[in-house]
């Protein structure tokens, strides 16, 4: 194919992020319940002599354009595996906040894989794409799959979850990002400082909450709100104390649940319905505790090719 190919990929929110102890390899075992939500990046792959990345969008300046860009790494991994030259111009239209705990880089990697596979005609199987995704990062397989899923291991071993309805969300985007590895380090430090210890021997194995899985299945927003949990939230708040004010503003405005999204600093608010989401968003925008407010819903499908 010589025409440019575009993939559209959603952001995620972790409705449960249970973090186990620090493993000897430096990772943590997780019980990570992902929900794909309707903020999307678009990745277009166009024929080119060499690998080149360009980015547009409000946060474009924070995204690397060299081969450390996750989309570039995805293209290189696919090209190497199939013995093709990695000649491609990847253009990313970025709507997912950068370093916001919403898997923006992972979304771009999944999108680049799908788009390059179509452009180059490499015909990778779904299983092969998922394998490349897992090697690129813990959240990348979910960006491909979308919907709702439980991630075990580092989060890359996915089991799709049934959902019974649409959940309405508001996201408060903060100024500046938080480094995911730094948030995990802070989580370990806080666990050590509490005297409980941070290793696998000290921390109970992370398990998904049966109440949370049931709430997803039935589409019950009130029950989901009662069960959401993020073990990284204390660490994100410790590194960015101002997030407490953002969470309070959303709760005061009637959000059913207020939590840090993944490693933060984006905060996620679950609303009762679309109208409730409008009210929470309005109050957050007026509160002056965040940079931007976004209203969306989920689950939505994972990465897919689109006609533009
Ligand atoms: P997660 O929720 O998966 O932990 P995140 O959403 O917090 O990730 P990203 O937006 O993926 O964070 O960005 C993390 C860092 O990765 C950025 O600071 C940036 O330097 C780098 N990065 C590499 N490629 C990309 C990309 N395509 N888009 C955004 N950031 C990228």
UniProtKB/TrEMBL annotation:
Pathway: Isoprenoid biosynthesis; isopentenyl diphosphate biosynthesis via DXP pathway; isopentenyl diphosphate from 1-deoxy-D-xylulose 5-phosphate: step 3/6. One of its GO terms (molecular function) is kinase activity. The keyword NAD does not apply. Residues 212-287 form the GHMP kinase C-terminal domain. Keywords: ATP-binding, Isoprene biosynthesis, Kinase, Nucleotide-binding, Transferase. It catalyses: 4-CDP-2-C-methyl-D-erythritol + ATP = 4-CDP-2-C-methyl-D-erythritol 2-phosphate + ADP + H(+). The keyword Hydrolase does not apply. It comes from the Bacteria. ATP binds at residues 97-107. InterPro entries: GHMP_kinase_C_dom, GHMP_kinase_C_sf, GHMP_kinase_N_dom, IspE, Ribosomal_Su5_D2-typ_SF, Ribsml_uS5_D2-typ_fold_subgr. The active site is at 12, 139. Residues 69-147 form the GHMP kinase N-terminal domain. Its EC number is 2.7.1.148. NCBIfam families: ispE, PRK03188.1. Catalyzes the phosphorylation of the position 2 hydroxy group of 4-diphosphocytidyl-2C-methyl-D-erythritol. Belongs to the GHMP kinase family. IspE subfamily. This is 4-diphosphocytidyl-2-C-methyl-D-erythritol kinase. It comes from Streptomyces hygroscopicus. The lineage of its organism: Bacteria, Bacillati, Actinomycetota, Actinomycetes, Kitasatosporales.
